[in-house]
Structure to design on (460 residues):
């Protein structure tokens, strides 16, 4: 019944999206058409676009609106197994360490709505809404921001010259930590990701704040940002005691930064190298590793039927919406750094990630550590590079709260794909993920899931 409700909501969301788009096109007929400035396209032409550059050739004529969207549908055929000891808990019936039996089926479709407005020359606004997703079936606003690439309203030649190299973003936006945030799947938007899912440690959160990016013509760039460190901010004072300080918890600002080099060295060769950091010394509930409000695209793997049946659901499609991922639980304090390397030579793309994160919960006095390594190899072929084959290796080692030993999760995934047009994409993936180091009484002990997924997506 829940699945039927979810599918109904998804269909309604698509209908709402279609209605909005038609209305928008009707309004745009009144001459509110035009290209966005300093903008990452929603379609295939947005591939391998990271921070928007200052290389913009779009002229501003008048205020105009662009209504876009992204939606996907996935067919999943995954299996899972484990070696965990049988265990019962008072609140549930049956073995809470038994895995749900999976069957080949279509997942709940996800859909996003994107509205971009060119307000003035060099000033753009974005609003993104999740119309339907696995974690939030109802409509939720993801976030929105205003981006300044020109400040002509100040009437200052000095400022205008500075803004030739500077971008300013203010609002609630995706925290620009790591380069992988520009390659991940975001709800219905899967167009930039050659694979079905994101990393095991999925670094993604929308937070309120501001970012400044400096672009140098040599290819060097630097970014600095400050946010509230919260996905769901609160105005209420804390009543909780921080175990590390013995004092009432504080909601400190979070800081992030990035420095790197990105250059098209020759017609065929592009090289990008970047280093990022994110730090939040004290938070109400930091969600850098759990801020995705759409959910994993590996449905119901390593999940327990007894727990699921005993869980009261509201706006969530299932009790384990992030199945296949790991959240280390750094909700109070988090300090993390990441290095990324991107190399593209003709149709070959190599993307690497090395990450070291430390953090703790409010009940812990010392920080724990998690490390992640990932490597993507993608080969795009034909003259238009609209077909691809790809392989990903991703491994995480983490110290989890209450665990004596570190745990390790390892994933290999291979994919093939096809851009039918620049807006329509199809891909197939085979994945194998294993869990190591979990105690015998944990459902993930000896865990493994494997199988294939097929996905079609549209973005415009």
């Amino acid at each position: 019944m829940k699945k039927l409700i979810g599918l109904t909501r998804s269909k309604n969301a698509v209908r709402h999206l279609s209605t909005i788009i038609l209305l928008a096109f009707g309004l745009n007929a009144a001459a509110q058409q035009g290209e966005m400035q300093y903008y990452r396209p929603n379609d295939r032409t947005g591939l391998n676009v990271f921070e928007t550059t200052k290389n913009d050739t779009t002229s501003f004529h008048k205020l105009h609106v662009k209504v876009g969207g992204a939606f996907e549908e996935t067919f999943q055929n995954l299996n899972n197994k484990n070696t965990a000891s049988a265990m019962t808990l008072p609140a549930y019936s049956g073995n809470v360490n038994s895995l749900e039996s999976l069957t080949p089926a279509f997942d709940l479709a996800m859909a996003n709505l994107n509205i971009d407005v060119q307000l003035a020359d060099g000033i753009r606004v974005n609003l993104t809404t999740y119309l339907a997703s696995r974690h939030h079936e109802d409509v939720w606003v993801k976030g929105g921001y205003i981006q300044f690439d020109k400040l002509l309203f100040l009437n200052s030649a000095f400022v205008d010259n500075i803004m030739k190299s500077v971008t300013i973003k203010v609002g609630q936006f995706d925290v620009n930590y790591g380069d992988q945030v520009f390659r991940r799947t975001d709800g219905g938007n899967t167009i930039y990701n050659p694979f079905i899912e994101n990393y095991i440690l999925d670094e993604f959160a929308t937070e309120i704040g501001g970012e400044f990016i400096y672009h140098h013509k040599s290819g060097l760039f630097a970014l600095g940002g400050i946010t509230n460190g919260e996905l769901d901010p609160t105005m209420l004072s804390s009543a909780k005691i921080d175990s590390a300080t013995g004092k009432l918890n504080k909601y400190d600002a979070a800081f992030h930064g990035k420095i790197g080099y990105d250059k098209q060295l020759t017609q065929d060769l592009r090289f990008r190298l970047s280093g990022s950091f994110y730090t939040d010394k004290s938070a109400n509930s930091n969600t850098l590793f759990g801020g995705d409000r759409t959910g994993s695209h590996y449905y119901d793997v390593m999940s327990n039927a007894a727990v699921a049946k005993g869980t009261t659901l509201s706006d969530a499609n299932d009790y384990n919406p992030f199945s296949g991922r790991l959240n280390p639980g750094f909700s109070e304090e988090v300090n993390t750094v990441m290095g990324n390397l991107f190399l593209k030579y003709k149709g070959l793309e190599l993307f690497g990630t090395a990450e070291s994160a430390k953090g703790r919960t409010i009940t812990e006095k010392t920080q724990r550590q998690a490390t992640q390594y990932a490597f993507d190899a993608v080969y795009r072929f034909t003259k238009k590079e609209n077909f691809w084959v790809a392989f990903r290796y991703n491994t995480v080692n983490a110290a989890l709260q209450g665990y004596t030993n570190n745990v390790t999760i390892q994933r290999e995934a291979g994919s093939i794909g096809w851009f039918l047009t620049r807006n329509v994409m199809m891909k197939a993936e085979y994945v194998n993920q294993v869990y190591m180091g979990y105690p015998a009484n944990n459902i993930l002990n000896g865990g493994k899931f494997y199988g294939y997924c097929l996905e079609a997506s549209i973005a415009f």
About this structure: Residues 2-28 form the longest helix (27 residues). The longest strand covers residues 64-81.
